[in-house]
Fold:
Amino acid sequence: MAKVPQTEPLLNRRSTDDAQVKTEVKGWTLKHLVGLEHISRDEMEMVLDAAPQFLAVQQRESGIKKVPLLQGRLVVNLFLEPSTRTRVSFELAAKRLSADTLTMSASGSSVTKGESLHDTLATIEAMHTDIIVIRHAFAGAPDILAERHPSHIINAGDGYHEHPTQGLLDAFTMRRHIRKLRDDPEAGLDGVRVAIIGDIAHSRVARSNVWGLTKLGASVVLCGPTTLMPMAAKQLGVDTTSNLREAMDGADVVYALRMQTERQANSLFPSIREYIRLFRVDGESLKAAPEHALIMHPGPMNRDIELASDIADGPRSVVLEQVSNGVAIRMAVMHLLVNASRANA
Ligand code: CP
Structure:
């Protein structure tokens, strides 16, 4: 783990607006967030526990929807693959923390002229960045950058590998609903059953969710066509099935994944019609799930393929709540990486 340099006590910068924002977090030492596979349950819970105060900042009806926790810091979003939710969410989260922000994509940058990723990062860092948020097509790119670059690196999705802030915002959304369902403000995800359905093989969201949710005590079943199930799925410590109704049986959360046709070199299932018949989350297939089961999807959604429109827009769906919670989770992550890791170094 790279050593974090000591800086001035940013945590002391408060305004009356921040009165309810608890800025001190004991025990956080991570400098980067590259994945959920190797972070501890305690670290995950520190993020989940820090997020509600940032959700409250966003929901302020009067006053400024901002806190100065990253004032004077520079956050660069380097998105070398397409994104709507994650890119906008990180940018908004940084602005809500009062950071300066820059967003770069592959098109229009010198990446298209053959510049190496290290050179691109070194060039950006010469402008004194604090956080670099990166989305990249190659699995492991954020880990390599974190080893060599002084900025805090946050993985916003690397190939099929990980999407850690998606995993955290999903766990946060599940935990909020489980707490309401059980009428227990302290409830965690221990014993919660999550069915993740669809194109598991190409999904970084599935991997981060599996690593994150199992660490938090949930049990996970992965369900999809065998051609879209990774060979090593069983080694992840989860159940697997190709029977949708079996997966839904007893599930507290039904999580549909996007069919990632752009990552499939060959057709990996007979037809979209066949996929819909066997794997779509819709009113009919949901009869196999408990009535309280939450419906989730990371977006972007192929409407009526992996998830029926009436279910996506219905009362059990928390798809848009996932998006709102994402900003709070990303505020929490950036605050912890910059402020808590320095304070605790
Ligand atoms: N969930 C997710 O990563 O969406 P985007 O690709 O739009 O960022």
